[in-house]
Design a protein that fits this description.
This protein is of the alpha/beta class. It is built from twelve helices and eight strands. The protein folds into two domains: about 5-240, Alpha-Beta Barrel (TIM Barrel); about 245-270, no CATH class. The structure holds 3-methyl-2-oxobutanoic acid. Keywords: Cytoplasm, Magnesium, Metal-binding, Methyltransferase, Pantothenate biosynthesis, Transferase.
Length: about 270
Amino acid sequence: MSVHSEIKKITTETLRKMKFDKEKITMLTAYDFTTAKMVDAGGIDAILIGDSAANVMAGHETTLPITLDQMIYHTQCVVRGVDRALIVADLPFGSYQSNSEKALESAVRMMKEGGAHSVKIEGGKEIEESITKIINAGIPVMGHLGLTPQSIYQFGTYKVRAKEDEEAEKLMSDAKLLEELGCFALVLEKIPADLAKRVSESISIPTIGIGAGAGCDGQVLVYHDMVGMNKGFSPKFLRRYLDLYTEITGAVSSFVKDVKTGDFPNENESY
Ligand code: KIV
């Protein structure tokens, strides 16, 4: 028997059961093989190849520029490093909004070429047809409501969404619709904690929050933010578990000093 077959893999069904059992779900982003391996070994339930790769990997200001081909490449890298976690890949801006045929085509490419286990797409009622088509093709879909960064130029700001009644009501009705359409889970980004709690209690599929309080069924963070690689991004919801920016720049400075002074390499480090 191979080592791989002994590992109990996380599936969309596992996440549903976790909600039922009131066990919190954990998700982190990863965009490359080495990080995915560490995140998986740390016991995470789901790994998201987020289109936040546009920001943290490529240095873009928004998530809009990343292409489907680039997201497929990141997904392929992650898939090779993961034994246990459920792999969720973002469909990027422009790959599903125009029509449901294109949405299905993009999702199929992400599964077939990328090797993802599921896709995540942003939006509610307005992309109903696309979600239905993708799910009918047997592809699990994770929804994403609240602050949906692909719509940043419509919102105009990254502030908390759905503070007003009208937007909160639309979000609640979109959440119920996504459940009805067959989404297996739902990301709730940057919305008031009491609204996220009400949504989580109103639907049977798990909610995974980012900046949405403790009432969600799980939590997701961007890996680079969580390990403190990104000094310039400090939203209230972020908890940093490491200060890797300081650690890494310190290590680089030490290497520079050791080489310049002739301390590295020493005899033991030479052939
Ligand atoms: O792209 C991403 O990293 C995301 C998370 C913030 C949920 O969508």
